[in-house]
Amino acid sequence: MTQLSHVRRVALQQAAAGLPVLPLRRGKLPFGNCPACADNACGGRPTMKTAGPCRCPGVCHAWAAATTNPAVIGSPAWAPAWREAVAVAYHPGGAGLTVVDLDNAAAVAWAREQLPTTRIVPTTRGEHWIYRGTMTSRNAVRPGVDVKSSMSYVRWRGAGTGRMTTLPHAVRALTVTEPSGIRPTPQAIAVPTRAANGECRHRTPAYLERGIAMAEQRITEARSSVHATVYRTFLAVLSTHGRCGCLTDVHITRLFTAAQAKGESPRHCTDAWTNARTRLGL
């Protein structure tokens, strides 16, 4: 079996399973842009937020070239890249996934102590921990740890073992460098009215945590109408938890972080939160 047929066969198998794939050349790097797209002369695709091939027929713009279309993967335009390819990569964000790339033994030890268990794929020097859900990608979030999801690519190293779990807040928090910049004003958090019996049933940790986690997931999984989804989610959270005083800076920051990972600005987040409070009379 030739290198072309082997690497492309792996790519077709993973594409059929729903992973947007692309070839990697030596050094685990994507192929360079074609002459028509050199220096982004075509208008560029690096700001693209969903997987899919460039309009040119070749393999261009790194992760943005990733596709699940077998006709593209097997096209003559992609054949030269497959002949040189040494491995297959995939765009995790395009498959609704986030990969925590642990580059050494110390990083793996940290993950075992700090992160919920999920599907694990061994790598040359460490492990990939794969979660269901998407977020903003960022390298070097801590020593030996990269987070790869949207606008990123990961080398395919096998299916791994273990049950894949939902992307936890502990991973999302790794990319939040300035939490104060995404918090609403104190007035937006103050909701002093409590239940009639003077106790807040929402302070049960599991009840409140489940509600916030579901809200984060709803925002994260939005594929269109993100503005409207964020507003409706904020409205739902406030309608359930807004009158008992149980929401804290931490909870609201989590919601704002999820919204910003989908492209919302801090101002849009604050406006949506304020509008939801106004509609509910809070």
Terminal CA distance: 67 Å
Helices and strands, in N-to-C order?
HEEHHEEHEEEEEHHHHHH
Shape descriptor reads: globular
Oligomer status = single chain
Helical/strand content category: alpha+beta
Mean pLDDT: 81
Rg, Cα atoms, Å: 22 Å
Number of strand segments: 9
Residues in β-strands, percent? 5-15%
Low-confidence stretches: 46-53, 178-198
Supply the number of helical segments: 10
Placed side by side, the strands forming the largest sheet appear as: 5-6-4-8-7
How would you portray this structure in words?
The protein has helices at residues 3-16, 70-73, 79-84, 105-114, 169-172, 186-189, 205-220, 226-241, 249-261, 266-280, and strands at 21-25, 29-30, 87-90, 97-102, 119-122, 127-132, 138-142, 145-148, 154-155. By secondary structure, the protein is of the alpha+beta class. A hairpin with a 2-residue loop joins strand 7 and strand 8 (145-148). The chain is globular. The termini are far apart.
Task: Set out the fold topology.
Elements: H1 3-16, E1 21-25, E2 29-30, H2 70-73, H3 79-84, E3 87-90, E4 97-102, H4 105-114, E5 119-122, E6 127-132, E7 138-142, E8 145-148, E9 154-155, H5 169-172, H6 186-189, H7 205-220, H8 226-241, H9 249-261, H10 266-280
Antiparallel strand pairs: 1-2, 1-3, 3-9, 4-6, 4-8, 5-6, 7-8
Helix pairs in contact: 7-8, 7-9, 8-10
